[in-house]
Design a protein that fits this description.
single chain, alpha/beta, Immunoglobulin-like, 5-stranded mixed sheet, 3-stranded mixed sheet, binds copper (II) ion
């Protein structure tokens, strides 16, 4: 009886394996370490394939907010309080991460300066 149960479990496991593999989502972790409103050179391009689960560890030495408009993502940062963000890279193309420092006076018509970093999502 026990043998039969084990056999049944094995068959079930085999049947589910391909499904489980197909559903597996690639996860990629990136850091955005913001200092004086900038990130190090190697963090200025984040390149992933479409469908990747992008995880971001964001920290900043000053208060402000990080925007990724195309993905309707916004995160508020405070010094010494890193934030973790995760999103599925569904839309392909190049998208700008923008940083808005809290203490910087926004000039009219100048809401967005140069991008902090660029997200590049490539079609599979
Ligand atoms: Cu913005």
């Amino acid at each position: 009886m026990r043998k039969l149960l084990l056999l049944t479990l094995c068959i079930l496991a085999n049947a589910w394996l391909p499904l489980a593999q197909a559903a597996e989502i690639t996860e990629k972790l990136f850091d955005l370490t913001i200092t004086n409103g900038n990130v190090p050179k190697e963090q200025r391009l984040i390149r992933v394939d479409k469908g990747t689960m992008v995880k971001l560890r964001v920290s900043s030495d000053s208060a402000g907010s990080l925007h990724l408009h195309a993905y309707k993502m916004e995160a508020h940062l405070a010094p010494g309080a890193p934030v973790e963000l995760a999103f599925n890279a569904r839309a392909t193309g190049r998208f700008r991460f923008e940083w808005h420092a809290e203490n910087a006076k926004a000039k009219a018509g100048d809401h967005h300066g140069p991008p902090l970093s660029t997200l590049e999502v490539r079609p599979k």
